[in-house]
Amino acid sequence: MPMTGEDYRESLQDGRVIYYDGKRIDDVTIHPKTRSMVDIVASTYDSEDQERREGRFSLPRSVEELRLKMDDFIQWDDLLAASILGFLTLRTVSHRMADDMQIYRQRMADWNKHCKDDNIRLTICLTDAKGDRAVRPSRQADPDSYLRVVDQTPDGIVINGAKLHATGAAISHELLVFPTKRMSSEESQWAVACAVPVNSPGLTILNAVPGPHHEEFENHPFSRHHIYPEGFAVFDHVFVPNERVFLNGEVEHSATFPHSLGLWQRIGGSAKMAEEADMLVGLAHLLAEENGLGRIPHIKDKLAEMILHATMVRAALEAAISNAEFTDEGYATPSELYTNAAKYYGSTNLSRMLNHIHDIAGGSVLTVPLSGDLDNPEIAPYLEKYMSTKPEGNGAYRTKLMQSARDITASGYAGTWQVRVLLGGGGLYAQKLVASHHYDVNRAKALALEATGLGAFNGTS
Amino acid sequence: MPMTGEDYRESLQDGRVIYYDGKRIDDVTIHPKTRSMVDIVASTYDSEDQERREGRFSLPRSVEELRLKMDDFIQWDDLLAASILGFLTLRTVSHRMADDMQIYRQRMADWNKHCKDDNIRLTICLTDAKGDRAVRPSRQADPDSYLRVVDQTPDGIVINGAKLHATGAAISHELLVFPTKRMSSEESQWAVACAVPVNSPGLTILNAVPGPHHEEFENHPFSRHHIYPEGFAVFDHVFVPNERVFLNGEVEHSATFPHSLGLWQRIGGSAKMAEEADMLVGLAHLLAEENGLGRIPHIKDKLAEMILHATMVRAALEAAISNAEFTDEGYATPSELYTNAAKYYGSTNLSRMLNHIHDIAGGSVLTVPLSGDLDNPEIAPYLEKYMSTKPEGNGAYRTKLMQSARDITASGYAGTWQVRVLLGGGGLYAQKLVASHHYDVNRAKALALEATGLGAFNGTS
Amino acid sequence: MPMTGEDYRESLQDGRVIYYDGKRIDDVTIHPKTRSMVDIVASTYDSEDQERREGRFSLPRSVEELRLKMDDFIQWDDLLAASILGFLTLRTVSHRMADDMQIYRQRMADWNKHCKDDNIRLTICLTDAKGDRAVRPSRQADPDSYLRVVDQTPDGIVINGAKLHATGAAISHELLVFPTKRMSSEESQWAVACAVPVNSPGLTILNAVPGPHHEEFENHPFSRHHIYPEGFAVFDHVFVPNERVFLNGEVEHSATFPHSLGLWQRIGGSAKMAEEADMLVGLAHLLAEENGLGRIPHIKDKLAEMILHATMVRAALEAAISNAEFTDEGYATPSELYTNAAKYYGSTNLSRMLNHIHDIAGGSVLTVPLSGDLDNPEIAPYLEKYMSTKPEGNGAYRTKLMQSARDITASGYAGTWQVRVLLGGGGLYAQKLVASHHYDVNRAKALALEATGLGAFNGTS
Amino acid sequence: MPMTGEDYRESLQDGRVIYYDGKRIDDVTIHPKTRSMVDIVASTYDSEDQERREGRFSLPRSVEELRLKMDDFIQWDDLLAASILGFLTLRTVSHRMADDMQIYRQRMADWNKHCKDDNIRLTICLTDAKGDRAVRPSRQADPDSYLRVVDQTPDGIVINGAKLHATGAAISHELLVFPTKRMSSEESQWAVACAVPVNSPGLTILNAVPGPHHEEFENHPFSRHHIYPEGFAVFDHVFVPNERVFLNGEVEHSATFPHSLGLWQRIGGSAKMAEEADMLVGLAHLLAEENGLGRIPHIKDKLAEMILHATMVRAALEAAISNAEFTDEGYATPSELYTNAAKYYGSTNLSRMLNHIHDIAGGSVLTVPLSGDLDNPEIAPYLEKYMSTKPEGNGAYRTKLMQSARDITASGYAGTWQVRVLLGGGGLYAQKLVASHHYDVNRAKALALEATGLGAFNGTS
Question: Which of A140, A233, A438, B214 is placed for a possible disulfide with A336 were both Cys, Cβ 3.0 to 4.6 Å?
Answer without folding.
Answer: A438
